[in-house]
Amino acid sequence: MKVDEIKVCILRMEGTNCEQETYDAFKRLGASPEFVHLKQLEGRDTLDGERRSLQDFHILMFPGGFSAGDYIRAGAIFAARLKASVAGDLVRFIDEGKAIGGFCNGFQLMVELGILPAFDCTMAAQPQAVLHANDSGRFECRPTVLKHVNEGKCVWTSGSKKGELRYIPCAHAEGKFMLPHESQEKEDALYHRLFDEDRVVFQFSDPSGDTSAQYPFNPNGSRFNIAGITNDLGTVFGMMPHPERVFFRNTHPDWYRRRIGSEEGDGRAIFRSVLDYVVRKF
Amino acid sequence: MDISHLFEDLGLPVPVKRVLVINASDEVLRSISDRLSIGLSVEEMRRVRDHFKMEGREPFDIELEALGQAWSEHCCYKSSKYFMKRAFLGIHQDYFLIKGEDAGVVEFDDEHAYVVGLESHNHPSAIGPYGGAATGVGGIIRDVLCMGAQPIAVIDPLFFGPLDLGYQDLQEGVNHPKFIFNGVVAGIRDYGNRIGIPTVAGMVNFHQGYTGNPLVNVGCVGIGRKENMIHSRVGGSGEIYILAGGRTGRDGIHGVTFASADLTADSEEKDRGSVQMGDPITKEPLIHSCLEINEKGLLGGMKDLGGGGLSCVSGEMALAGGFGAVIRLDRIPLKEPGLSPWEIWVSESQERMMVSVRPENVEEVLHIFKKWDVEANVIGEVVEGKRVKVLWGEDVILDLDLDFFTAGPEYCRTYRSKIVERRVDDAPFPQPDRSGTEAAILRLLGSPNICSRERVFRTYDHEVRGRTVIKPAVGKPFTPGPSDAAVLKPLEGSDRGLAITADVNPYFCEIDPYRGTLSAMEESVRNLVSVGARPHSLADCLNFGNPERPDRLGDFEQSCEAIGKFASSFSIPVVSGNVSLYNESGISKVPPTPTIMMIGLMDDINHATTSDLKTPGNIIYLIGRTYHEMGGSAYYQEMGVNCSCVPDVDLEMSKRTMDAVLNLDGEFLLHSVHDLSEGGLGVAISEMCIGGHVGAELNIHEIGTHLISHGSKALRSDVKLFSESNSRYLVEVQPQDAARVEDGLSRSEVPYIKLGTSGGANLRITEREKVLMDIPVDILDHAWRMGLTELLEGSE
Questions:
Q1: What pTM did the predictor assign?
Q2: Could you confirm whether B74 is annotated as catalytic?
Q3: Strand partners of residue B324
């Protein structure tokens, strides 16, 4: 399949608000993104020609933002509405090997939806993890350094080498990734499983690559500095920071110190990797 | 006085009263105005009485309410317009495309325009800081949106009382500055972040005078294609009015009359209902849907509902198009049942937009709103003749001549301008020794008005939309310094940049409103020039006290004159603005606060410069002249010294310096640029060291030598370090470029001094052989970075 044939569904509802830059990222790389309102999938208030089905797309993107205001829990309403209307389509989409990505609020809603971490299933009935309030208690908009630690499972980062550092900024109040704590032993086992199955994609680090660095390098306090994970297939991927904000070098925090604004930004490889995957796969 | 008998119920299904004014005496007129809380003076009530005499009938209560809103200071600028017209409203540039509407429309490039709005939300924020600030953001975004532009940046200059104010010093009815600060910042955070518009710049200032009356100014910039810019007026007779967005409720009743009077101890209780409530998750789809409808060419006109609510918008939109309107008030969707017609008519409930649409497009417009789950209803139509009529069912409950309704009074009230005698006295304290100087610089860096704002702006999403090129922090990512202005890259496929800054120094304006305002303009220019942008337009938010007091109005007049003088000299049009008067309470009046928001443009964002030092071994120059102008300076405040001599502006020198710095920048010769403002040279070079995490070694001996050649005394070394004279920049230059830079400055007749070089781990400043200070950058960093946190957490 050619890259311009790749259809990307940029899904939105009230309060999603990183959709334009996410759309732009795919468009700049030659793919065919489309903004799709949740109601177009649900079939509510749609005229002829406005209805969309997930089957029309190869990549599904959940952009960042504050879907439905995040008043209940980040991503909760968006996830509930998706589950109620298109749960079956979503499972089929994933099982066909199509790619789903979510950044920030997108990641939060994927966890609510049960498609991440998705231990032993495609989509869990109940959330298997949570993105909890930051340890600082504050919204944190700041630069973060991500260390790519994936061995090759994740199709969204296949273009990056293991150990690479990427400056990708974060902006969230609820980003502390936590797995259930039935007992310390069980919790530890779950984290080990995540690492052993090569499902951890990014960890927060300091500029030297130390992934045990604490605040502000780890902006939310997540254990093992986890910043992004994938499902068992490597096709469903969520991360708290915002790669769509650093497509170009000139939105990095310090590009002007070496006057390299027109060069490639650290987020671009993520979009390119997933497009390469779809080109190869379909 | 009992005047109940003057209110006759009409016997309609909803309460509407006829008010007997035609035969009323002055005293009765005053009582009627008081009873309705519409804030009209006796003189204005007489005008109303005479008008209805001519119409041959008594008015209804809803009509008097409508007039109270339309003729409030907030809506019609009755005390301020005279001065603004005289000073600066006439400054024109061909690139200023649409003026006099909700926001100014200015050319960005051949195909695009940017839109600028700036407003205050002061009184609501005094009573309900969280809601007041949030709806301030919401309101200014609607102003930009209703011109047909996508909002791309929010800017918020904020002014509070001292955070460490003792509770025993807090007067009754006044909220503690810390409570107000936390509420305002949270309100901006929760609203701005949720609607997905980055908060990219602003300012936070503390002054005793804001204790009883904080100032919350909010600006917004938008961008759009020129052909999509739309007027706030109807397109023609027969168009249908559609009201979209939030429902109408009792929040925000009498908001504009509340904004047009002094705050009092019982404001908290009495005026609570004047504070609106924001709902970002109604606003966010409202932005999308309005832009979509506009881009499809379905609109005749669009205007947001702000101060004065439906009452102001229905009439103004119709009259601006040369028509009248009929509104069916029973069709307005309400938050709660039981509102009186007049309450519906003047409510300032948030998140509402009015569009006028040709009948054949109504269905499509309603569908688009519905698609976004935005409530929208047909509520009236545009008609011939310049009258606005309001119907409840078949009954006419308001019928006003639009020329009369919208032509508010205009006053030239008595004013008394301050004459400032600029006395340059020697400092009444000895020149501090090295340890005294080192202590002073650390205190200044950690002081409330200079320390890092990271604690605030990290809680705002300042890079959503992915177009913030220069952010509020610059330098090393994890130990950044302050940024002089934000730079955005608004368009896909173009590297043209837009820079934004907001500034004012209330301490200067308090002493000398004229020079203080000039300084605010100059500092705004310097901030833009420091990032490499050429000033292009400005908006002003003029926050002053009660205009019925001649000294307050005199301050206002001086400030307007200064804006006019500076703007016309630089040919920068004032494209938008807002006047907020009556900023006083029983305990304090705010210092004159003319907030300036200035927009600059740059051809290529890849040329942007920042304040952080880049490399060891580069030369550091001071551009501009330093004078003994210590009035209102951060240093004198720290030393507890009063002085009347605030920095002046030499307009010709200011322009030459601006041009020279921009030229050098265009040739890539400047590696860092930072302007000198609060705390002067000492603070500016510290901030450059902090951002670059590198030291510097400077010798300041030569500063002020020009004065000696003119027969004046040499400057004291603390004056050299901490004077806040205008038109000065620090620049970092590579040694191999030094000759070109010096040559460029000399040819432009701009004075400069080579101060020293970057490098090392310390900031070391000497005067000839004498060491004035020698401090590790890490220590400077700590003092500056932790200042606000310590104020917020350490003073409990």
A1: 0.95
A2: yes
A3: B383
B83-121 pLDDT per residue, tens: 998 998 888 899 999 988 889 999 999 999 999 999 999
Structure token pair of residue B239: 């168009």
The CA distances from residue B98 to B80, B138, B232, B353, B354, in Å, are: 22, 22, 11, 20, 19
Return the residue of B nearest to A43 by Cα: B371
Contact B463 A261 (CB under 8 A): no
* CB within 8 Å of B528: residues ≥ 6 apart: B484, B485, B499, B501, B534, B535, B598, B599, B600
Of B194, B282, B606, the CB nearest to A250: B606
Cα–Cα distances (Å) from B667 to B17, B288, B654, in that order, read 71, 41, 20
Cis before residue B480, ω within 30 degrees of 0? no
Q: Is the CB of residue A216 less than 8 Å from the CB of residue A142?
A: yes
ipTM, two decimals: 0.96
Chain center to CA of A166: 15
Distance (Å, rounded) from C-alpha B133 to C-alpha B115? 21
Number of domains composing chain A: 1
Q: Which residues of A touch B453 (CB under 8 A)?
A: none
What is the CA angle B205-B580-B561, rounded to 5? 85
Residue type, B655: K
- Specify whether A242 is catalytic: yes
Cβ-based burial of B507 (10 A; exposed 0-12, middle 13-18, buried ≥19): buried
pLDDT recorded at residue B21: 94
- From chain A, the residues in CB contact with B609 under 8 A are 256
Domain extent at residue A109: 3-281
Q: What does DSSP say about strands B593-602 and B497-503: parallel, antiparallel, or unpaired?
A: antiparallel
Q: Which of A58, A148, A172, A242 is catalytic?
A: A242
- Contacts of B292 by beta carbon, 8 Å cutoff, 6+ apart: B368
Residue of A nearest to B371 (CA): A45
pLDDT band of residue B271 (cuts 50, 70, 90) is low
Choose the closest CB to A69 out of B281, B471, B477. B281
Q: How many residues does chain A have?
A: 282
Q: Is B149 left (phi over 0), alpha (psi -120 to 50) or beta?
A: beta
Give the distance between the most distant pair of CA atoms in chain A.
Answer: 55
Handedness of CA B787, B791, B792, B794 (dihedral sign): positive
| Alpha carbon distance B69, A270 (integer Å) | 54
Query: Can you give the CATH number for the domain in which A251 is found?
Result: 3.40.50.880
Helices B42-55/B26-36 angle, 10° precision:
100
pLDDT tens, residue by residue, A195-216: 999 999 999 999 999 999 999 9
Using pLDDT thresholds of 50, 70 and 90, give the confidence band for residue B268: low
Q: Which helix (H) or strand (E) holds A171?
A: strand A170-172
- For residue A251, the chain B residues in CB contact (below 8 A) are 463, 466-469, 489
